[in-house]
Amino acid sequence: MNFGSERSYTYSEVKMKTTRIQHIAFSQVTKAEVLQLISECVNGACGGGQIVTVNSDILLKSERDKELARIIHNAWLVTPDGTPIIWLSRLIGNPLPERVTGADLVVDICKESEKAGLAIFFLGGNPGVAELAKHRAEEKWHGANIVSTYCPSPEELMDSALSARIVDKINDSGANVLLVGLGAPKQEKWIDRHREEIRPPVLIGVGASFDFLAGTLPRAPKWMQVVGLEWLFRLITEPRRLWRRYLSDFRILKYFFLAFIKSVKGDKT
């Protein structure tokens, strides 16, 4: 299945093509190339693994969270899920091609799942949301192959024996793509903790994507996404939950300052 990229990219090629922003090496791939790799992976052409979409919040959290930093470092692909990351890559002189967000990947994976041989499992979201997202996707895209959904309780996620039952549900479903909507970094850590037992070769943390797909949470208009104001739309729609996070995210300005100083000095390291 060709998702629009001109050629196939192997795992080793992707790992060599990176843009380093502080301690994180971002994969220099477009969304079409990521989707192509996912398709090749589930059809046995490459090994696959965990895909981490990194926005400003994750970048900043991984400074202090060594477990999260390790997970990102070991990920199969690391994509920029935020316009500030793209801006930073341009400022340091090694631009990333485009944003590759979890929400956009979920849409395209569902839309092309039948043609690409993808069998998808939705894990997470608030009660009923993943199931509603499944129904909405199947109504919108004929052939969307979402084989099962499950909304775990906090206790199930924390207890190793109960989590083992979740893994069994995933493995028994026949899925080859696992999408986990538990919020970051909880979803990344849960995936990492169980990745050796999980059969699907492609594992992606997708945050609030099930809510967007189900229509229980609106996503920012396209123009706000393009100009880097998606965070403002999210803040307006969920102020109580997100105001502390986005206030903290302004710390990313220090990276812009450091990158600007280096560019003025002509330091390309």
Kindly describe this structure.
- With 269 residues, the chain is an alpha/beta fold.
- Helix content is 52%, strand content 14%.
- The chain is built from 16 helices and eight strands.
- It has helices at 11-16, 31-42, 56-64, 66-74, 83-91, 102-111, 113-116, 129-140, 154-158, 160-172, 186-194, 209-214, 222-226, 230-237, 239-249, 253-265; strands at 18-21, 24-27, 49-54, 77-80, 120-124, 146-150, 177-181, 202-205.
- The strands form two sheets. It has a six-stranded parallel β-sheet, with helices on both faces. The chain has a two-stranded antiparallel sheet with strand order 1-2.
- α14 packs antiparallel against α15.
- It is globular and about 55 Å long.
- It starts with 10 loop residues before the first helix and ends with a helix.
- Mean pLDDT is 88; it is low at 1-9.
Key terms:
about 270 residues; alpha/beta; 6-stranded parallel sheet; two-stranded antiparallel sheet; 16 helices; about 15% strand; globular; disordered N terminus
Mean pLDDT, as a whole number?
88
Query: What share of residues are in beta strands?
Result: 5-15%
Work out the radius of gyration: 18 Å
End-to-end Cα distance: 38 Å
Explain briefly what this protein structure is.
By secondary structure, this protein is an alpha/beta fold. The protein has helices at about 10-15, 30-40, 55-65, 65-75, 85-90, 100-110, 115, 130-140, 155-160, 160-170, 185-195, 210-215, 220-225, 230-235, 240-250, 255-265, and strands spanning about 20, 25, 50-55, 75-80, 120-125, 145-150, 175-180, 200-205. It has 16 helices and 8 strands.
